[in-house]
Amino acid sequence: MVASPAGTPRVAIVGGGIGGLAAAAFLHRAGLPSTVYEQAPQLTEVGAGLVLAPNAARLLRRLGVLDRLHEHAVPLDVGWEFRRWEDGRVLSAENLADACERLYGEHTYTVHRADLLTAIASAVPPDALQLGKRCTDLTVNGDIARLAFADGTRAEADVVIGADGVHSTIRGAITEPTPATYSGICAFRALVPADRGPSFARRRAQTLWIGPDHHLVHYPIAGETVINLVAFAPAGEYTTESWSATATVEEFLAEFAGWDPRLQELIRGAGTPGRWALLDREPLRHWSQGPITLLGDAAHPMFPFFAQGAAQSIEDAAVLARCLADDVHAPERALRRFESLRIERTTRLQDVSHARAHLNHLPDGPEQRARDASLAHADPLVDNGWIYAHDAEAEAAATPV
Fold this sequence. Notes:
Elements: E1 11-14, H1 18-29, E2 35-38, E3 49-52, H2 54-63, H3 66-69, E4 74-75, E5 79-84, E6 90-94, H4 99-104, E7 109-112, H5 113-121, E8 129-131, E9 135-141, E10 144-149, E11 154-157, E12 159-162, E13 181-193, E14 205-211, E15 214-221, E16 226-234, H6 249-255, H7 261-268, E17 274-280, E18 288-289, E19 292-294, H8 309-326, H9 331-360, H10 366-377, H11 380-383, H12 385-388, H13 392-398
Parallel strand pairs: 1-2, 1-12, 2-8, 5-14, 12-19
Antiparallel strand pairs: 3-7, 4-7, 5-6, 9-10, 10-11, 13-16, 13-17, 14-15, 15-16, 18-19
């Protein structure tokens, strides 16, 4: 474990994904060393693309890593679109070319998860990362936490941050395990080389096609060389929640039979699709206890329908670092402050993301027509200003210790 200067807490971060590395990076910026324990033998990020909204982009800029993303990140200038499932009719469109920066001081980008992870990792000292460290047990004796790993090694810390995702081991030390429930929705994920995708999918736009019981999203990533494709459909008997599980292109096509033929063309250009079930988890009422806290999906897993999962992990990381730096001699109090600053916002995002599934998947009929009419007059960039305008660091700085 990285040695801490006298008077500063020893911080262990379990999980080296976006949230865990962001926590280490923001702590390092604040002058607080930490050690990240990642179970994988090398630093990789599974999955594909994500949307980086202004609320996350401004924090990454302060961290000094946003410029590293510019080579690969795609700024959305055509913007957001909602389209009807059967014919691609545009239900709503938002031009982000200048509106995002004018309203919120930052652009909205689409990025490959691996590119984002690499950029954040550049702000973490190399000796702060230990790979091949799968945490198997966590105990607390007084104010000291002890971690055990599958390779037989152990570590002690004054603060443990569980950034180990939806199947968090650390969460079990804070709250009684509660089984997830099946949402009835599964997701397909695929990457399409840009030269194999139709021209409409290569535009700098995040496009959502919505229809009965299904919706599909696509946007370019990786310097516009790849089209990220993710779609949602009824799960049926499918219950596997793993980003390594796969489907076939034929299964993917079957789910969207009868949809606009251009979507069929896009799906046919994909490699082997991933497929996983979305599990439903109630928001936690607390996620800090003693010297232990959680962040990101370990604390507040949410449906991906507002594209805020990674952004909320980054916000968590920035606020947690600020709280620990402000109260370095009382880390348990700092963790309680961190939770109090974050839990209302993340719970609200969990709730609205959950509700969006119903709205996106309405069957054709009166309710669907009312939704479409509402979309035509909505301004989601303004309507969701509470998400994008939020400055997590500024809120923490303005809140008394």
